[in-house]
Amino acid sequence: MFMKTAVLLGTALLLASCSYVSDSLFPRRSTTPATAAAPPPPALPPRPADGPAAPQGPVLTATSIAPPAVTPGVNTGTFVGQKVSQLRQELSQLQSNIVTQNQRLQDIRNQVSATSQRYHGTIAAIQSRLQVGTTPGNPVLVNQRNVAQAELDRLSSEINQLNALANSVASDSAFATFVLESARAAFGLSGAIDEDHRQLVILEDETNRTVVLIDRLLNELSEDVSRQTAYVGNERANLTTMSLAIQNGELIGPSLANRAFGPRSGLAAPAAAPADQAALGAARRPLVVIRFDRPDVPYQQALYAAVSRALEQRAQAAFDLVAIAPNRGTPAEVALNTNRSKQNSERVLRSLVEMGLPANRVNLSSAQSSEAFTNEVHLYVR
Fold first, then answer.
1. What single DSSP character describes residue 276?
2. Number of C-beta neighbours around residue 237 at 10 A
3. Cα-based distances in Å from 218 to 61, 91, 156
4. How confident is the model at residue 281 (pLDDT cuts 50, 70, 90)?
């Protein structure tokens, strides 16, 4: 016999509004036989415990690059000797640039580290307050959220500094290649003495080592920029979701954008919504049902938990959001209920976007049901 399993989404919805998660969509592996008892409500994501230090941003590369000094030489008086002296001066200037750029890199890294610590300290204060519960739209938390946003903007500015430094190092890399090719070409010039060639060998070796150092500096800059850019992008998504949590006065969790990754290519196209809820239910079971039978239904936390669990099972999942209106009463009443159900579904869609779920992962539609007694919003996984 087929057993329907359902999970109540939040104690606030127990008496009047009901939301549930279907385990048949994402079956769990179990070594015990299935029972008729309803599964426990969807667990919220783990929250940080009070006391531990706030997490920091991604680790920056810590290598400090210091090129060796250029070996001095003597001017032999030949044309080649003059060329060697000129190349030695250019190499010395190049290495001086590397020292300056490396010091600039260390300064920016220190700035990034300090900014990241301030940002995470502010975020930890917000999360601690939300974890124990607070008033919706608490102005203290709103101000702290603005401070955190300013720190993220400062991190973005520091990433721009890293990019500008990388461009400067890339320019020196091209110049180092020119010096190396000039030193190699000088071996073919006529009128040189043995001392000229001996100094050219030393100059070529030191230029090669300088080129290696510049390449290493470029690689470290590239890694730093890549890590910090991804980090700031993720934190912006988390901060958007935290704004919703501040608005509700309770901690929700990290942004769904960190789980809802990957292109939509390969996903099945959404099917047309059937005209009746029964036809829809016969094909698949909803992940979440929200009944809007009273004002201000507190569905956000339960909705986040259900969608978060779905994305843990299948990160590239897409969703169908269906507004269900009761097909009861006069034609005017049916039209009014249909309009209200659509408004409710748009409200749920905005909540999902604020939680970090990309809008292109959700298909919005509407239907009428003769079995529904109030306006409902159903969320399906596809």
1. B
2. 18
3. 12, 18, 19
4. very low
